[in-house]
Amino acid sequence: MAKHSRFTQGILKRPRWHISEQHSTPEAVFKARRQIVKALGLGAIGASIPGYVQAGLFDLFGEQPKQRFITTPLSFSVNAGFGQNEVQTPLDKVTTHNNFYEFGTSKQDPFENAQGFKTSPWQIRIEGEVERPMTLDISELIKRFPLEERIYRLRCVEAWSMVIPWVGFSLAALLKSVGVTSKGKYVAFETAFDPEQMPGQRNRLMGGGIHYPYVEGLRMDEAMNELTLLSVGLYGKTLPPQNGAPLRLVVPWKYGFKSIKSIVRIQVMEKQPPTSWNQLAPHEYGFYANVNPAVDHPRWSQASERRIGAGGLFSATRIDTQPFNGYGEFVASLYDGMDLRQYY
Amino acid sequence: MLRLTTKHLFWLKLLFHLIGLLPIAYLVWSVMMGRAGGDPVQHIIHFTGIGALNALVATLLISPVAKTFKLGLLIQTRRLVGLYVFAYASLHILAFFSLDLLFAWHLLLSEVMKRPYILVGATAYVLLTALSITSLKSVMRKMGRHWQTLHNGVYLIAILGPIHFYWSVKSEIIEPSLYILGFCLLLLWRVPTWYRKKRILPKSLEKGQVIKQTAITRSANEVVKG
Hints:
The complex is a heterodimer. Chain A is 20% helix and 20% strand. By secondary structure, chain A is an alpha+beta fold. By secondary structure, chain B is mostly helical. Chain B has eleven helices and no strands. In chain B, helix 2 runs parallel beside helix 9 and helix 4 (105-114) crosses helix 5 (116-133).
């Protein structure tokens, strides 16, 4: 019984994983908090004041204030089923601290270089071992699947983490709608290839030496898991390009690099597809990339992580990393009998 | 031809102090203005690390520049620039320890031991600390000829530093590769001097022979040309 209730909403009894409202801070409160910090003008060194607020100052240094990408509000229901009793990372940190090498390897590069990215028109091709291959415009895709908000932890392989309210729909719903054939064992994803718009794809120095387009993949049972989300928004609005507009994957029990951004192609395959980071450094990045505090990356201990929260530079906290990023009860059974040291 | 006087030296040192301090001011400014991203921790660590490498390049450039352009007094700025390497490296480690590890001592110790790239960086820093402490003139006098032996350690730092950088990155290897190349050139430039010191100076009697050989080589070249 308890298992089914995960999918239901607004029911009398809250399942134990249900986030209680007093634990989840609404965006408005965050914004108000930031207003106070700004008003005080103290800045709590760093992070507290987003650059674009101070855009006027850049004129002094001969830089043009950048026009920001425009996001639009989405309508969605709230699925608090996977929410956590944790403070959400404020929107301005979620949108200015990104790994999206197509727009540069520094954390702030994607924010700086992606604002002019064109996400309309945007077509997504779903093909391979499916009964009804199709090409859909992102707007049709959003219409076809009801959107919901889910609060997930995002754990980067570099040992930092955030808590983000995503808006999207489950990948399983999409796969069911196209009908996976009996040969479909894996799902492969591909990011847009557009060197004109993505400077990292035309310049190795900016693009970190990755062979573009960026590709990722999941095993079919991982793809069909209820947690696996195709996201079109965060904090109630459409995704900014640095966060993977217009469509990205979110696989919360895996390291962030599995959550491929700006998807143009989803291909159901019989064999395990290649994945970008695995191609680049197979001894460091496996196909599975499950968050696992017991298996270190050669350069980062994965036992703990730095949670990027709501405060300034000195307010971050260091917390223990949980197996499967804390989603073990939903996904651990997928890996029964597998040696996760070998299949990292 | 430019001639360096002690008066020039004063202004040159002032200039070097400015060049050393301005990036730190810029870093503080960019972090406060949110120009360093939503979570500036990695940015600060990277920025100060690169700063240390840049200062080290500058330190190692002083002697070739002084020799090439016959600006002997320039050597007197070397300690100043070298201490900026130490300053940036200290900020780099402080940022790593305070902002990333959040003062977790056990994590610092285990990370240094477990991650080869951090061990390489830490080794360079220990050596750098030794050089900085012994950079006082009084210590220099007390140490006598051991001082030079110890301070040759800067060449080891010039090897370990860029290796640490190269090893620490995920995939963006071009920038660290450029540093490795740069340091290689700076070290290679010194090889003829070392060679002469090692081979010739202790056997100063053979000096004449070398000159003769050079003369022979020169005349041989002339023959070829002719």
